[in-house]
Structure formats: C-alpha cells, structure tokens
Design brief:
alpha/beta; Elongation Factor Tu (Ef-tu), domain 3; 2 domains; seven-stranded antiparallel β-sheet; seven-stranded mixed β-sheet; 6 helices; 16 strands; 18% helix; globular; binds flavin-adenine dinucleotide; binds FE2/S2 (inorganic) cluster
C-alpha cells in the first residue's frame, strides 16, 4: 500500500503530489467493515478513481439510508484515507471511522456488498521531509485518536521510499482508541490519558521528549488529531524551530471549494479553504490550530 507516487500506476492529474479527483461522485462497493478498538475500518473497492496521495480525503455518502423519508444525514461527510491498495480491479480504500453522529453511524454499519458513493481524492497531501527541510533525516508522525488515519497511509508511503519515520500515537481512553493494526511493522510509541496503553499522559509529552533529544534539527513532524493536540504540536515545533505539517479538520459541506464552509484564518492575513488549500497545512502558516466548529476531542 502506498501513495500515488509509489504504486506504479499513473495518477491522472497528479499535481505536485496532489492527485486530482475525477469529476462527480462515483459508486464504490464495500468489501469489509471491521471493528478496531472503539473505531471501525471500512474498506471499499473504487473501480474508477486514481490512487490517492497520503493526507488526501474523500467525501462519502452511503448509497442507501442517507436522507430521504425525513431522516438525517443527507450531506456527504469528509474522511481521510487511511490505506489504499491498487489492484487489477481498482483501488481498495480503507477509512478509519469514529461513530460520533448520524453520518458516521450509518457508515460504521455498512455491510460488504453495499454501495458507498465517493468523491475524491481531494485536498493537499503531505509533503516529503526533504521538500520541507533539506537537512531532514526522517519524519516524526504524531497522531491523536481518530487522527491517526492519514498518518497510517503516510507512514507506509515513507517506508516504501526508505525514509526513516517514528510514530507517536495518543488516545483519550480505551473506548476512544483503535486503528493500531494500520501501523503494523512500524516503530510506534503510545500514550493514553487513562493509562491503558503506553505513557500515561499526552502524546505531546512524547514529542517534547523526542525533540529535546538530538531529533529537533533533523526531523520533520507530521501531525493529525484533535485541535488542542494539533495546537500543542504547532507551538512545540515553533518553539524548537522544527518544521511541521498539520492535517486539520473544519466543517466541510462540499469538499471542493464551492461553499466556503471550511474557511480557516492564516498568518499572512485572510482565510484559506481547508478543502482545497489543505487539509494538510504548513504549521508555520497558521497562528493557531484551534479552528472553530471542527475536530474530535
Ligand atoms: C478533512 C477531514 C477528514 C476527516 N477524517 C476523518 C476520519 O478519517 N475519520 C473520522 O471518523 N472522521 C473524520 N473526519 C470527521 C468527520 O467528517 C465528522 O466526524 C463527520 O462529518 C461527523 O458526521 P456525523 O453526521 O456523524 O456527525 P454530526 O451530526 O455532523 O456531528 C455529531 C457530533 O460530532 C461532532 N462533530 C461534527 N463534526 C466533527 C468533526 N469534524 N470532528 C469531530 N466531531 C465532530 C459534532 O459536534 C456533534 O457533537 C474528518 C473531517 C475532515 C474535515
Ligand atoms: S468544504 Fe466547501 S469550500 Fe471547502
């Protein structure tokens, strides 16, 4: 499994690492739905789309049970791709879901054979470490809760390119944890607020320790998680002079730049649309990762 640059297939419309989505939504078919701790991993076969780049996302809609008869939800919901495996019959896309409301609840109960409409891949992916810091010796991946999804595919992409990476993953408690199998074979250190796994405390404690060692000058940090965690990562990296990219969330209604629902303020003034200029942003480009109305706790 890997990102677009590594899988041997031509990614139509690839643009500086960004893979451009085919026009309109298309039908994929669910091939698996597995429990993973407190989360679900839903895998669908996309017969027509290009393989995504790590950090990109899809807008998802269940074919059935999605609005109609006065029921919610009816807008698509945004999900980072957690794994992508190209094959002769299409690309197997895996999504890590946390059931937080009607949309995620419906997606979490999808069964093999059901239809899943998707639009994507969308947005700006992660950048290779050397593009961000010519002295970079490797990458440090920092994930919080469901935010580990885009880091899972990025880890595999980095490993496929022979780039050293270390992963730090943090969870609130046992119920709000899962997806670790997506990090198989990797050097992973865990933290949990309730102490059920690894270091008792925040994943940013582990990052602070790592950056206090000799990693700071030669690492690039990639993070995804709740806004408070992302803000702690951003502030820590700024203080230590470490380059970082953050995969962020904001409320997304369309996913392709039309509704402006996902606008976030940037340091240079004004706003960007997170769905087209993100979701991966250079940490130095924002004053704060605390974006109103978005993000898992
Ligand atoms: C680029 C991007 C990538 C994402 N990737 C993933 C992913 O890989 N896995 C995943 O499970 N979710 C992901 N999300 C979040 C997901 O889109 C939302 O959790 C989902 O839209 C909620 O829909 P719902 O109908 O279940 O809940 P809603 O009815 O929309 O909300 C129910 C409850 O969840 C809260 N909520 C709403 N939006 C979010 C949010 N973005 N994060 C946390 N809580 C929220 C609400 O405050 C409310 O309390 C991503 C969001 C974005 C923008
Ligand atoms: S989600 Fe509509 S403009 Fe970004």
């Amino acid at each position: 499994m890997s990102g677009a640059a590594d899988n041997g297939r031509t990614a139509p419309g690839a643009d500086g690492g960004r893979v451009t989505a085919p026009f309109g939504r298309r039908r994929s078919e669910v091939v698996a739905n597995e429990e993973s701790g407190g989360y679900r991993i839903v895998t669908a076969l996309d017969p027509a789309g290009p393989p995504p780049a790590a950090g990109q996302f899809y807008m998802l809609t269940a074919e059935r049970g999605w609005g109609g008869d006065g029921e919610r939800p009816f807008l698509p919901r945004a999900f980072s791709v957690a794994a992508a495996q190209p094959g002769a019959d299409g690309v197997r896309l895996s999504f890590l879901l946390e059931d937080v409301g009607p949309g995620t609840h419906r997606l979490a109960e999808l069964e093999p054979g059901e239809g899943l409409h998707l639009t994507g891949p969308l947005g700006r992916p992660f950048s290779p470490p050397r593009e961000l810091n010519p002295d970079a010796a490797g990458a440090i991946l920092v994930g919080g809760g469901i935010g580990l999804a885009p880091l899972a595919i990025w880890r595999r992409t980095l490993a496929g390119r022979g780039i050293p990476e270390r992963s730090l993953l943090g969870f609130r408690d046992r119920e709000h944890s899962g997806g670790l199998e997506l990090f198989r074979c990797s050097e992973v250190r865990l933290a949990s607020e309730d102490g059920h796994a690894g270091h008792r405390g925040y994943v940013t404690d582990l990052l602070a320790q790592m950056l206090a060692g000799d990693s700071a000058a030669t690492a690039v940090v990639y993070a995804c998680g709740p806004p408070a965690m992302l803000e702690a990562v951003r502030a820590l990296c700024e203080e230590r002079g470490v380059t970082a990219e953050l995969a962020m969330e904001s409320p997304m209604a369309c996913g392709y730049g039309a509704c402006f629902g996902c606008a976030v303020p940037v340091r240079s003034g004004g706003y960007i649309r997170l769905c087209v200029d993100g979701p991966v942003l250079l940490a130095a480009d924002i004053e704060s990762a605390l974006v109103a109305g978005a993000g898992h706790r």
